[in-house]
Amino acid sequence: MPAALVNVPAKAKRGAVIEIKTLMSHVMEPGYRHTAAGEVVPRDIITSFTCRFNGAEIFRADLFPAIAANPFLSFFTTASESGRFEFEWIGDNGFVATASAAITVE
Amino acid sequence: MDSMFEPLHMSRRHLLQLAGTAAAASALPLITIRPTQATPAMLTSAIRNLVGEAKVQIGKVRLDIPPLVENGNTVPMTVSVDHPMTADNCVKSIHIFNEKNPQPNIANFHLTPSAGRAQVTTRIRLADTQKVVAIAKLSDGSFWSVSVDVIVTLAACTEELP
């Protein structure tokens, strides 16, 4: 199981803009590096990250080999109601990882 | 291929190398030749693919990257757009490009009005001292951009594995 770290405030005031931070452990092999023998190391990256809140997409990122290993993403959202954030990372070689976090809005 | 018959002396690394050679040989007719570095022309065409014939204006976008980077393998980067995020007037997406990595794209971020603030932070790779460009697409169809020069002392992406 790949390790995901997600940081979402557990509580927020209604209407507040909150920051969401995510970190996924992944090599993000760019596909341009060579071994000592001169062979190209095949590409193995995360290509897509999606964040949904109560089922609706609120943020999506297309990632390229120029994203550093263990991709870190931080972005903002408005706390409108209590609910659950769902995070999904999709990558090469059938890589899929998910995480979720709940928030209470008062 | 004598070495294939000497399993006692074969390390995992050698085995992987052999497997890699076999795979490369079988895929040979499909190999396309790619340049090892994106050129400013590739940057221009990547931007053209995004904006089409629209005019890209300078401003609104802010790109925070350290101007001098020691290690190009992880460069912290924050992009933000000075624009409201309301249902009918918002930042649709932010696109990050570079000049000299093997590929001109770095990332595309798709935002929704509920974001509240058009700001994204991530960590990127830079293969050389070069220009990084951020372009924001607004809901009214206009494009705004900024470019930042970054000096990189240790390049990423194309080095040899240890």
The N- and C-terminal alpha carbons of chain A lie at a distance of: 34 Å
Give the domain tally of chain B: 1
Please state roughly what percent of the residues of chain B sit in beta strands, choosing from under 5%, 5-15%, 15-25%, 25-35%, 35-45% or over 45%.
35-45%
Instruction: Output mean pLDDT of chain A.
Output: 94
Report the CATH topology name of chain B.
Immunoglobulin-like
- Structural class label of chain A: mainly beta
Number of domains of chain A: 1
Helix and strand composition category of chain B: alpha+beta
Give Rg of chain B in angstroms. Answer: 21 Å
Q: State the helix count of chain A.
A: 0
Strand order of the largest sheet of chain A: 2-8-7-4-5
**Approximate shape of chain B:** globular
Number of strands of chain B: 9
Strand count, sense and closure of the main sheet of chain B?
A: 6 strands, mixed
Q: Note the main sheet of chain A.
A: 5 strands, mixed
Order of helices and strands of chain A: EEEEEEEE
Low-confidence stretches of chain B: 1-8, 24-33
Outline of chain A: elongated
Classified in CATH, the superfamily of chain B is SoxY domain
Summary?
The complex is a heterodimer of chains A (106) and B (162). Chain A has 106 residues and is mainly beta.
